[in-house]
């Protein structure tokens, strides 16, 4: 990349960052070639190639005003550092900058892995050959089981979050979000309140807190060119919580023969060769010894939470706080209603 093009790197002061790397990260030798990487939850994520050909990844939050706990690069770097010597596959962290004067925000650098997340059917077809998909999905659920098997304090994460009341706190937060979004969204739904009441009435007892990823899905793994799982990524909302809530979130997108409707042909998880949701749940139970008899509660919780999240996003569009250009707002509304229907079904099955 030329010096003139370097000026176009959003969010990064290239000379300042490269000077910081020279002092802080001896594994890398500048100058660097910068290439923007897609995805990453809108974090500004670039691949760096140093003068010796070694590659790394640099991440910082997006530009603009952020919510107080959003895009927490320090948390992500801390979790990666804690997990680097565990069985959980993660990229190796290299350096973290907590001085915003360098480039306007905290950022960190980690090893680059030549892999790709599975966002779409095309990603699945390109990166996960049909013959490899069963093993890939089992590696995916095994990584979650390995994460939940860790004792947080033993890897230095005993204070990553409050160990008690994870599900109740989430219900309180997202219940408030739904209520606050009703007026700007212009619609309410009785199922949102009915499922919330169910969740409160059937609140599970306290279980030993484990490290939970919070967004564990095939969109947050890196699949290598041979079709195997290289790493789990995007740890910025990891905390301590109920592992079954994490499991249900991970399982929800996977189809199963017991589902009332067949999955959409465009669903990445529904492509030939992948195991069913029940097979993944059984594998997790064998690996962890977890009792999954109450899993429908957590399925309902995650479906309801998803509805609340998208309801809030839809409300911001309807309020004019975000541009609707190119946005399928009607699709967002239908997503809310669909999630509520699935939440109500799971609650009725519990």
TrEMBL record:
Query: Does ATP-binding show up as a keyword for this record?
Result: no
- One of the record's GO molecular function terms: transferase activity
Keywords of the record: Transferase
Bias (Pro residues)? 254-265
Q: Which CDD domains match?
A: ACAD10_11_N-like (cd05154)
**Region entry Disordered: which residue ranges?**
252-275
Q: Which Pfam families match?
A: APH (PF01636)
* Lineage top rank: taxon: Bacteria
Asked if the record carries the keyword Transferase, the reply is: yes
Q: Which residues form the Aminoglycoside phosphotransferase domain?
A: 34-271
Name of protein? Phosphotransferase family protein
Please name the source species: Phenylobacterium parvum
